[in-house]
Amino acid sequence: MRQYSADLTPPWKKSQPVPEVPAEPGLVVEEPGTGFCGAVTGCEAGTVTLEDRFGKRRVFPLQPRGFLLEGRAVTLVRPASGPVRPTRTASGSVAVPGARARVARAGRIYVEGRHDAELVEKVWGDDLRIEGVVVEYLEGVDDLPSIVADFAPGPDARLGVLVDHLVPGSKEWRIAESVTSEHALVVGHPYIDIWEAVKPTSLGIDAWPRVPHGQDWKTGVCRALGWPPENTGAVWQAILARVGSYKDLEPELLGRVEELIDFVTT
Predict the structure, then answer these.
(1) Cα–Cα distance for residue pair 76/31, rounded to 1 Å
(2) d(CA 176, CA 96)
(3) What is the residue-level pLDDT of the chain in tens, covering all 266 positions?
(4) Which end of the chain has fewer CB atoms at under 10 Å, N or C?
(5) 15 class by beta-carbon count within 10 Å (0-12 exposed, 13-18 middle, 19+ buried)
(6) pTM over the 0.70 mark
């Protein structure tokens, strides 16, 4: 008697083999059951941890055909080298090993002064190079209207500006309002100076001192804390050296810089 296969599934409906892909750090995949898309930050004990662009993490089991890579089903497997450890830039983003700097975009981010630019570079420098974003600095905001006019922001050349002490009703606020448009975004933090955006605990002090109105803020801070007021540049370099990552900065600054990066790279 002739034997027939018990599998009556048509060939076109049978599951086709899919490639196995090592769950290396920074690999971006989607879990189709939930639609969660993120970069691999960890892989061990039969699970993989993904983190999306907003910093939210989720753990998923390593199942056959369990993920989509560039829209195609794949099976994630544990890398041959063993457990994957989270690798991050100073801004807290997932690091992409071997990533090359992108050719600079036409868009730009302007910050108010040199100290601001140095702080942004130290914490977000890796992210900015990957995105091809150049950061330049102003010398105050009084000339911002003419700078924006000369830059002529547009769909392919967006302009983002970070301003110190941007509070409603201030001079800075009025200038920001006058230049903001669909392709030019001005945001700010509430601190008098970028120094104040560094967490006091990272510097070993209880709090930033209050400086009387009308007195130079940096000089007043140095005097109150016993730092050399005659060389605020050297003091700033000492402050900057204590900043290791985004964890040393206040959330009010973190959110604004991330907002500008998103704006100019959209």
Answers:
(1) 11
(2) 35
(3) 444 444 444 444 445 678 999 998 888 889 998 888 888 888 876 888 888 777 778 888 898 999 998 788 999 998 876 555 555 666 556 555 555 545 556 789 999 889 999 999 999 988 888 888 889 988 778 889 999 999 999 998 999 999 988 888 888 889 999 999 999 999 999 899 999 999 999 999 999 999 998 899 999 999 999 999 999 999 999 999 999 888 899 999 999 999 999 999 87
(4) N
(5) exposed
(6) no
